[in-house]
Automatic annotation (TrEMBL), chain A:
Gene source species: Pseudomonas laurentiana
Name assigned to this protein: Iron-sulfur cluster-binding protein
InterPro entries given in the database record: 4Fe4S_Fe-S-bd, 4Fe4S_Fe_S_CS, FTHF_cligase-like_sf, Helical_ferredxn, LUD_dom, LutB/LldF, LutB_C, NagB/RpiA_transferase-like
Signal peptide feature range: none
UniProt keywords, alphabetically: 4Fe-4S, Electron transport, Iron, Iron-sulfur, Metal-binding, Repeat, Transport
4Fe-4S ferredoxin-type domain sequence ranges: 309-338
GO biological process, one term: lactate metabolic process
One function term, GO molecular function aspect: 4 iron, 4 sulfur cluster binding
UniProt keyword Cytoplasm, yes or no: no
Pfam family, one: LutB_C
SUPFAM superfamilies recorded: alpha-helical ferredoxin (SSF46548), NagB/RpiA/CoA transferase-like (SSF100950)
PROSITE patterns xref list: 4FE4S_FER_1, 4FE4S_FER_2
Amino acid sequence: MSTQSLIPTVEVQDDFRARAHKALGDQQLRNNFRSAMDSLMTKRAVAFSDAHEREHLRALGNAIRARALSKLPDLLEQLEQNLTRNGVKVHWAETVDEANGIVLSIIRAHEARQVIKGKSMVSEEMEMNHVLAEQGIECLESDMGEFIVQLDHEKPSHIIMPAIHKNAGQVASLFHDKLGVEYTKDVDQLIQIGRRVLREKFFEADVGVSGVNFAVAETGTLLLVENEGNGRMSTTVPPVHIAVTGIEKVVENLRDVVPLLSLLTRSALGQPITTYVNMISGPRKAEELDGPQEVHLVLLDNGRSQAFADSELRQTLNCIRCGACMNHCPVYTRIGGHTYGEVYPGPIGKIITPHMVGLAKVPDHPSASSLCGACGEVCPVKIPIPALLRRLREENVKAPDSPHQVMRGQGSKYSRKERMIWNVWTRLNTSPRLYRLFGFFATRLRQLVPSNVGPWTQNHSAPKPAARSLHELAREHLAKQDKH
Amino acid sequence: MSAKQNILAKLRKSLTGTTPLADNFDEALVTEPWRYAPEQRIAQLRKLMEAVHTEIHLTTAADWPQRVAQLMRERQLPSLLIAPATAHGQQLTAYWQQCGDLPPLKAYDRPVEDWKAELFNDTPASLTGTLGAIAATGSLIVWPTPQEPRLMSLVPPVHFALLNASEIHDNFYEVQQKFSWAAGMPTNALLISGPSKTADIEQVLAYGAHGPKDLVVLILEDR
Ligand code: SF4
């Protein structure tokens, strides 16, 4: 297998609307997502069969995350102290460039050439594969789904199931073309092919990279959940382990992970627990016979502190990355993950991405939602996603001279014309005299409404005012009554 | 200013005038729904672990080595990796010596670097102990030690695990409290709830992803 050719990923084309339009026309893609999301929703529902238990646990999950965020800086320092005491080296990065610089310098210090990576969405934020490839370092994904998308020069389309947009036939052709194996659609055989290829890589790798699900401040423990064992391989076999994570992933106590873990695996996959819960608290000790000699943790900000600054938007950082919001999202299910064009798709992507890349780069994100509320209802840590989307819509149209700077790229959809129309509309509706005058003319001149009123008439017939307004009718009615 | 100072300063500024939220962790929520009568614990564990393709055998403190030998024969496993310095490693070694004609035992008694290729390519099965199990989620508790290192429960395709019936606990919270985990964690602690698996292709479940394809749990009922 030629490894260098694995690395570049397909660039996203066009804007959100054009991509969405294209995705909607792709029947195969829609089938793949529809069936996967249906099954994930069912599994979650079965795993939370007791609604009472579920709602109490969600409230506890929310309280734990809110408590952690309410003392985040202290917990981060406590985490660093405890990890350092345990022998883990902690690094801090404000930007993805800084984080990549740190990773690169660790890799260089070991003259490493091969990196094996467990699933990590933060490393996707960093585009680590790409950055390392440019330096001539192979960085191979080891999660089966990630391996598949990397092999096809793609990016993950789901945060838990990266290759969910493909069916077995598509994976079969991919393996046949890229790995030179016999074509088979048998999923067991496909997985065994992946296992064979990657075992060799685990064996050879100089450095293992992973994400983190929860970082426990109290004990200095990095907790990782997974089903495949690739996370354990990546964090145990190579002589160096680098974990990368966002600054929000810290929790205060070890016991806090008990409910969070249950919420995470049940919401994500409908499993009571994942096959492996891997708790790492330090590098190999002198008397131990395996495990990495060095463990590093890179704590990345990348826009999180911006979300943190606003007490409403801060709730975005409650997220435990379970993916349930996308599984239940009618928009995500129809357009798929790639349409969003960024690392995090679906509802969570719409509320976190603007902080990472600036609202101006993803101007359509806040409005790509019907506000049906499903995401907020299933979120295990009770992030009010619909409310946050509405808030981002507001930030999106804020006037450029607004003194209140909440986020990078705010006001990217601001239009003077639109603002003027709304100002007029506000006046009309707040002044009784104007309102009555408006009502009078709108009803008398109702024949003048054009039959084509922009996007509205694409799917609806043009609005036509009634012959008389309700106000007028009521007044007439009352006047008549008075006469009697 | 360093990245650390910048990040912490920003976070602190955002929290000005606020007080940390109180810790109102309600332990009933993570314990009460997950309690089992002692005689139900094996059944509960078994139900969950078998649902994810774990093989479970009930045996005793005296008989288990014989059961391992029999299972090895049935699977035609050519060798077994053990932790020679552990009590169970010694018990198994004694039984093996007594029988004579069993497939060879391999000892994990040197740093992985000294025999990595053999571990990866020529070690078909392993046997480890456990610290107990969790009935609520169907999980084995494994704390690797210098005597019984981490890769034993990961690299060989078949993993035999010994579990004392009396050490099956109700839920994860209880385990953490009872054994004061928060007071000191080992280098690596694991919960293992089945053989390695994936559903990354079309949601179709396949076992034997990167870790063991078979997890065989021997429950010692009298211990
Ligand atoms: S926002 Fe909530 S539902 Fe969505 S991934 Fe995060 S925790 Fe899960």
